[in-house]
C-alpha cells in the first residue's frame, strides 16, 4: 500500500492587490449575485467570465422547485459564453456569493463538483487553463487552472 498526497496551490490576495481588470471582474460577479433567483436556498451566487477577446459574460444561479432543473452561476456564465462566443476561450472566471443573511460571504466560496467538471471541459476545449478568482470579503483566492481545485479529474477514456 502507498499513500499519495495531493496538494492544491492557491494564492490569497486582498481585493486591491488584484489587477484592475480582475477587480472589475470580481465586481461584476458581486453585482450578478443581486440577479440570482434563489428562493429555496437563499444562497445567491454570481460569476463573471473574461474571454480572450476581452468580452465579459456574467451569470448567476437560478433555482427551481425541481432542484435538478436549476443551474449554478459558474455554469450559467460559462454556458452563456459558449453559446455567444463558441470559438473564444475563457481566460478568467470570478465567483462571489451572498449567504442566507443577504451579506456577501466573508470567506471565498468554491465551485461545486459539477461546475468543476464543466471548468475541466472548458479548459480542455480550448487547451488553456482558466484563472479562477474566488471572492470573499476577507480575501480573494486565485488559482491558475481548475486542476488546483480538482487534481483528480474525470476526462474521457
Task: Give, in spatial order, the strands making up the sheet with the most strands.
Answer: 1-6-5-4-2-3
Q: Which sequence of SSEs, written as H and E, runs from N to C?
A: EHEEHEHEE
Low-confidence stretches: none
Count every beta strand, where a strand is a DSSP E run of 2 or more residues: 6
Architecture overview:
With 157 residues, this protein is of the alpha+beta class. Helix content is 25%, strand content 22%. It is built from three helices and six strands. A hairpin with a 4-residue loop joins strand 2 and strand 3 (56-60).
Keywords:
single chain, 157 residues, alpha+beta, 6-stranded mixed β-sheet, 3 helices, 22% strand, globular
In summary, what is this structure?
The protein is an alpha+beta fold and 157 residues long. It contains three helices and six strands; from the N terminus they run βαββαβαββ.
List the helices and strands and how they pair.
Layout: E1 11-13, H1 20-32, E2 44-51, E3 56-60, H2 73-84, E4 90-98, H3 113-126, E5 131-135, E6 140-144
Parallel strand pairs: 4-5
Antiparallel strand pairs: 1-6, 2-3, 2-4, 5-6
Amino acid at each position: 500500500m502507498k499513500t499519495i498526497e495531493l496538494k492544491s496551490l492557491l494564492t490569497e490576495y486582498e481585493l486591491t492587490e488584484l489587477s484592475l481588470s480582475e477587480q472589475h471582474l470580481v465586481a461584476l460577479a458581486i453585482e450578478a449575485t443581486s440577479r440570482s433567483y434563489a428562493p429555496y436556498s437563499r444562497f445567491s451566487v454570481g460569476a463573471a467570465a473574461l474571454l480572450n477577446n476581452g468580452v465579459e459574460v456574467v451569470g448567476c444561479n437560478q433555482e427551481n422547485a425541481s432542484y435538478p432543473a436549476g443551474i449554478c452561476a459558474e455554469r450559467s456564465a460559462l454556458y452563456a459564453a459558449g453559446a455567444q462566443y463558441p470559438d473564444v476561450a475563457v481566460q478568467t472566471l470570478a465567483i462571489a456569493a451572498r449567504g442566507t443573511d443577504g451579506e456577501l460571504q466573508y470567506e471565498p466560496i468554491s465551485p461545486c463538483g459539477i461546475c468543476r467538471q464543466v471548468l475541466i471541459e472548458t479548459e480542455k476545449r480550448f487547451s488553456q487553463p482558466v484563472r479562477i478568482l474566488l471572492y470573499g470579503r476577507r480575501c480573494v483566492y486565485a488559482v491558475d487552472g481548475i486542476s488546483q481545485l480538482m487534481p483528480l479529474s474525470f476526462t474521457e477514456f
